[in-house]
Amino acid sequence: MNIGQVIKDSRKEKGIKQGDFSNLCEISQTYLSLIESNRKEPNITTLKTISEKLGIPLPVMFFLSLDEDDIPKRKQEIFKALEPSIKDMIKQIYVND
């Protein structure tokens, strides 16, 4: 799971600078940087704030952060086949403005 990368990519796609976004979320830029680099795991309250400010429902952020290692081995082939299309569709709805 790579929630930090999803946050970073979504923020950048919306054209929001890290410092501005950290202020918007009422967290320090250092903390946001640690979250985006997956060196800190934020609590659920912080994740909810981040998802609200990005306009992306938290369950959608969790889905976007899934990678092959999060999927049971017996279902990885289907995940690999469907992942690009599903993630692209979700990004068209929630990320790309």
Automatic annotation (TrEMBL):
> Is DNA-binding given among the entry's keywords?
yes
Record flagged with keyword DNA-binding: yes
Q: List keywords of the entry alphabetically.
A: DNA-binding
- Provide the GO MF annotations for this entry: DNA binding
Residue ranges occupied by any HTH cro/C1-type domain in the UniProt entry: 7-61
UniProt cross-references to Pfam families, sorted A to Z: HTH_3 (PF01381)
Look up the domain of life of the source. Answer: Bacteria
| PROSITE patterns tied to this protein | HTH_CROC1 (PS50943)
Per its record, how is this protein called by name?
A: Helix-turn-helix transcriptional regulator
Native organism is Maribacter aurantiacus
